[in-house]
Amino acid sequence: MKVSAEDVRYIAGLSRLELSDDEIQRMRTDLNDILLYIDKLNELNTTNVEPTSHVLDISNVFQEDIPSQSLDVDRALANAPDRQDSYFRVPKIIE
Amino acid sequence: MQYEAVIGLEVHAQLSTNTKIFCRCSTNFGSEPNSQTCPVCLGLPGSLPVLNKKAVEFAIKTGLALNSRIASYTRFARKNYFYPDLPKNYQISQYELPICEGGYIEISVDEKPKRINLTRIHLEEDAGKNIHDAKNPFSLVDLNRTGVPLMEIVSEPDIRTPQEASEYMKKLRTILRYIEVCDGNMEQGSLRCDANVSVRPVGQKEFGVKVELKNMNSFKYVEKALEYEIKRQIEILQDGGKIIQETRLFDANSSRTYSMRSKEEAHDYRYFPDPDLVPVIINDEMIQEIMSGLPELPDKKISRFITDYNLTNYDAEILASDKYLAGWFEEVVRCGVNPKTAANWIINELLKFLNEDDKTISDTPIKPQQLANLIRMIEKGVISGKIAKTVFHEMYQTGNEPDAIVTQKGLVQISDTETIQKTIDEILAANPKEVERYKNGETKLLGFFAGQVMKVTKGKANPQMVNEILKKRLS
Predict the structure, then answer these.
(1) ipTM of the complex
(2) Which of B96, B105, B378, B417 has its CA 20 to 30 A from that of B160?
(3) A7: Cα separation from own chain's centroid
């Protein structure tokens, strides 16, 4: 397999995800399949193809610097699991 | 062994746009928490960012003012990390293909000029503000700042001393304020500085292990943090120890730096081009248009002040440190007064008052024309230089015309020989002992008599005439 259990744990850690051993094995298989598919794509000869970072051939989409209405505080906080006054409240962040 | 420091600075400048970089929420500072958010900056599913044109223009303007190459093709990338101040779990930033590359800032330490080269300038969005309170078992998050446009200006590791670092910051701030892309307010966090610092034996080519310093929100703190950190690193090496690559925070209270996290467990940002944003193509026409809007920059202004107005380097640097101050000074000069005299009044009087009140030139009620009028009143002998200072203080407080203040307070200089003579005679008659001593050779008593005359006339007697008449009367 191209992906070790350690790789999965590392990636999960970056996203603050806690995975059980079963889940890690499942992720390993899934991620391995994805990477095998990428290998398949790599078989194509792309020597004369420009790298694509965007599928649409457009550029310079701007907006003018003019303020528009923001959400009310209550609507902004409506989906939050927890709030205190006008703030989002989250578990204590300790670096 | 002699060691030298190697320092590179990363400065985050908040752009003075009205709206955020990828949505049109206001960037206003100090509003109610979470009152300036929308689906885009809250990172709600299905929302899409649209780039603020002004932010792009400001970055190009900065690149031009800092001698950088402006990219013809630039794009945005996602920097992935998981933290509550950034609800999308990635920050939109730039990785390869930043908007500006190269460039330099000229600084001067102890009158020795030095060029600090730049690596790049890129655009990115700011994160929100976390509030941690020791008593609260939770952290609070305000996302008003999320998405506010930032420009990150990265220097090459060309800086060698804490003093060079703070000069670099000062110069950068002055330029950003000149071109009006950032207000430079360090207390409000509009200009933030991180430093990469390492030390190495003098003569060694390779860099030592570097430490990243954060949280230096004033020029003074930049210097103090670097001084402490350089000393700390040298001491470790001298004791045969090793520097650990880590991030350290500066604590202003103790003037020390302390470890925040070590780089071994550092974030792995997994940058990739942001598919929600299209690339930006910058053509010569755009660059030319922005170039034509650039004001005269500080270095040019300083040398013009020295050549055209015969000012000292010191005076020119102070006056050119702020575009509006420089403009104010030139307005006074345009009224036809001697530039050196105008410079002295501004530097010694006006700036003293403004600094005491923690104000800037745009806060003064005095108009340039009024200072010019005051200077002319001294030149014509209507008031003495000393009285002029009193008048100036009154002008600073009220914004009234100098001649109105002089008339209203009866401050017109006494230049009439008879009146002065009469006063002098009275004073000489009242102080026979001093007159005796003067005549026996204690000529420094002239100052005493002149002082008495000024006291009686409330400072209004023409000082030159007082001295002349005194000498005549006492001989």
Answers:
(1) 0.90
(2) B96
(3) 16
